[in-house]
Amino acid sequence: MKSIPTLKEPKASPLGGGGGISVIGAGTMGNGIAHVFAQNGFAVTLIDVSAAQLEKALGTISKNLDRQVTKGSLSEEQKSITLSNISTATDIAAGVKNATLVVEAATENTNLKLEIFKQIDAHAPEGCILASNTSSISITKIAAVTKRPEMVIGMHFMNPVPVMKLVEIINGYATKKEVTETIVELSKQLGKIPCTVNDYPGFIANRILMPMINEAIYSLFEGVAGVEEIDTVMKLGMAHPMGPLQLADFIGLDTCLSILKVLQDGFGNPKYAPCPLLVNMVMAGKLGAKTGEGFYTYTAGSKELVVSKSFK
Ligand SMILES: NC(=O)c1ccc[n+]([C@@H]2O[C@H](COP(=O)([O-])OP(=O)(O)OC[C@H]3O[C@@H](n4cnc5c(N)ncnc54)[C@H](O)[C@@H]3O)[C@@H](O)[C@H]2O)c1
After folding, report:
1. Per-residue pLDDT for 276 more than 50?
2. Which residues are catalytic?
């Protein structure tokens, strides 16, 4: 029988003692990032402009912890300690004032992130590392709006954060070596496997993944095959655990569109132009799992994959 691991104390944290972790954005990624830090003993402040989103995030974290308890990888006591490590805030200034690390995981929009980083820089203590979970936006550009570009880094967790092992760490043009080393060490403390890359559009993960997803959407758009056929070919033929259309739904179609635009602008190459079908779906508010419909439809509590009626 598997024994239940004990919660790690963040005593030997590479960040040093004292302050906590502030996570900005309580959506798909923010709740997972808060979950993982809190489970590993860090005090987390989860910040979102929407109080309703914060409440929803706490509910999601609790449900995901329940799943770990059912599997036997966490005890009830560890679940309640994890939840008690998380507090929430709707104001960035108050939420980052005691942080040693801020991880920004707000909506994938360049202007929004630049505004958020100006605010974080103004209110986080000197010496606090500012990380972004952005999928594609330039870390160098984000760093340039702060007065501490050497302390800014990409800390790109994968979805779902509590499950996925990889953290893609992105060095901006000015990122200090010590900051990279700290984030590498911290990622290991969270039980993750860090992989460090340099700051070019899409980094590595999305530079390779998004053109594949876009090509799958083009194949559907051009009538080469249906949703199920495209995903089945990639699952059974390439041993992908999830087909590209299902994965796009899971990531969020708005996020996929934003990343493709960053690749298109960043490289100036039309091969990255987002498929018009993706653009239309985002305009129609069909963003995938988070809105209940994308290439598939999603019903709470059901794991069955049902192709959206738009594609039947
Ligand atoms: N979804 C994925 O699979 C995935 C994977 C890796 C990285 N990312 C990246 O993570 C980031 C978040 O993506 P997501 O999928 O969680 O998005 P999401 O849409 O699920 O959540 C974004 C959250 O940010 C909040 N927000 C917006 N403006 C804010 C502000 N000014 N201050 C505080 N909160 C604000 C929104 O209310 C929302 O709750 C993006 O940069 C995205 O590219 C996403």
Report:
1. yes
2. 135, 156, 168, 206
Query: Which residues have C-beta atoms less than 6 Å from ligand 1?
Result: 24-30, 47-50, 53, 105-108, 112, 116, 133-135, 156, 159, 251-252, 255, 290
| Residue ranges of domains in the chain | 10-198, 206-311
Q: For residue 198, which phi and psi values (nearest 5 degrees)? A: -100, 165
Q: What is the pTM of this model?
A: 0.91
Q: Which of 28, 35, 250 to mutate to test the pocket of ligand 1 (most atoms within 8 A of CB)?
A: 28
**Considering the domain 206-311 in this protein, what is its CATH number?**
1.10.1040.10
φ/ψ bin of 65: left (φ > 0), alpha (ψ from -120 to 50), beta (otherwise): alpha
Q: How far is CA 278 from CA 54, 253, 302, in A?
A: 28, 7, 25
Return the CATH fold of 10-198: Rossmann fold (3.40.50)
The pLDDT tens digits of the residues spanning 125-156 come to 999 999 999 998 999 999 999 999 999 999 99
User: Ligand 1 centre and the CA of 4: distance in Å?
Assistant: 32
Q: Tokens representing 151?
A: 């302390």
